[in-house]
Amino acid sequence: MGKMIDGVWMDEGDTYFGKDGSFQRPDSPLRNWVTADGAAGSSGSAGFKAEPGRYHLYIATSCPWAHRTHIVSKLKELEGAISFSTVKPRRTDQGWVFDNDDPKYADDLLGNQSLHQIYSHSTPDYNGRVTVPVLFDKEQDVIVSNESSEIIRMLNSAFNDVGGNEVDFYPAELREEIDTINERVYATVNNGVYRAGYARSQEAYEEAYNQIFDTLDWMDDLLEKRRYLAGNQLTEADWRAFPTLVRFDVAYVGAFRCNKKRIVDYANLWPYLRELYQQPGVAETVHLETYKRGYYSSPERNPLGIIPVGPDIDFNVPHGRG
User: Fold this and answer.
1) Do residues 132 and 189 share a domain?
2) Do 121 and 212 sit in the same domain of this protein?
3) I need a labelling partner for 157 at 20 to 30 A (CA). Which of 57, 64, 236, 258 fits?
4) Is residue 88 domain-shared with residue 197, that is, in the same domain?
């Protein structure tokens, strides 16, 4: 799947494994922050002030990490303040690529053919994976960040006075609870499905598999007692969980062997997932057929390349949660 070494694209070595065959996701290396006044965030450099029209977001409809940024951008009503481009749904030997003859998948900002060209444009000696999402600063002509969890926090608060609404998905009084939930859900569900799907040993697979369903059971129990993961209001914790949950039955159950239970089998997770999907603007960010084709396209996991027809899932069924 490729990575960059000293700013040069190498079509190999994108995936990382431990000696036990476990998949190990490396940290995102580009970690500046957009802030309301341009002051430095918790990492990186200062100088990235929230201004309408200054920033560009690169996403992929197939990628759950990019999906969370797309959702928060919509819910914060930032599409007028932040422009965005979408790479083609499937990677090639050049990684994520654009099709500048198709407005749907064109690089509307720089006109490049591949995402790795944007990385080398911003950081000529870049080393590491080439991932989405990417938040790009048009003024300084550099990538601000490629860490989705931090991009959604920028979108949540930095742009309130320059186009965004006042909805707060990371309220101060719930931050400790949100952080605790995020930590578990990321390690065992968001990244857990990849640890199961990419595992290169039976032991590594089973460890990831068991952790996934321990956490899904825990989430289901939690939602029996409260409306949302962190309490009675939608927060970042819900929107970080959603991209994995919405892909689970169409992709991870089969392609990643996460087949103990489906989300539709859970008494509380299933109506909860439908409620999130039915929030205004969210459904248009969901592309089930794209997810299915993407996850089943791996020759290693699916050598014949046959894409399942099902499952038939209706997220528009009334959720009945009030």
Assistant:
1) no
2) no
3) 64
4) no
- CA distance linking residue 97 with residue 107, whole number of Å: 9
Full domain range(s) for residue 125: 3-157
Q: Please, which residues bridge with residue 83 across strands?
A: 56
Are residues 248 and 219 both part of a single domain?
A: yes
In the residue annotation, 277 being an active-site residue is answered as no
**How do residues 192-233 score in pLDDT, each as one tens digit?**
999 999 999 999 999 999 999 999 999 999 999 999 999 999
In the annotation, is 55 catalytic?
no
Strand partners of residue 9: 4
- 301 exposure class (CB count in 10 Å sphere: 0-12, 13-18, 19+): middle
Q: Distances in Å between the alpha carbon of 303 and those of 156, 252, 254, 296, 298?
A: 41, 17, 14, 9, 7
Q: What are phi and psi of 145, to 5 degrees?
A: -155, 150
Residue 291 · residue 62 · CB < 8 Å: yes
The alpha carbon of 257 is separated from its chain's Cα centroid by a whole number of angstroms, namely 20
Do residues 234 and 115 share a domain? no
E-strand stretches of the chain: 3-5, 8-10, 55-59, 83-86, 134-137, 142-145
Instruction: State the helix-helix crossing angle for 269-277 and 202-225, rounded to 10 degrees.
Output: 80
Q: Are residues 137 and 231 in the same domain?
A: no
Locate the DSSP E strands across 94-185.
134-137, 142-145
Kindly name the residue from 105, 170, 186, 194 that is annotated as catalytic: 194
Catalytic residue among 55, 58, 63, 277: 63
DSSP reduced 3-state for 261: coil
pLDDT in tens, 68-114: 999 999 999 999 999 999 999 999 999 999 999 999 999 999 999 99
pTM: 0.95
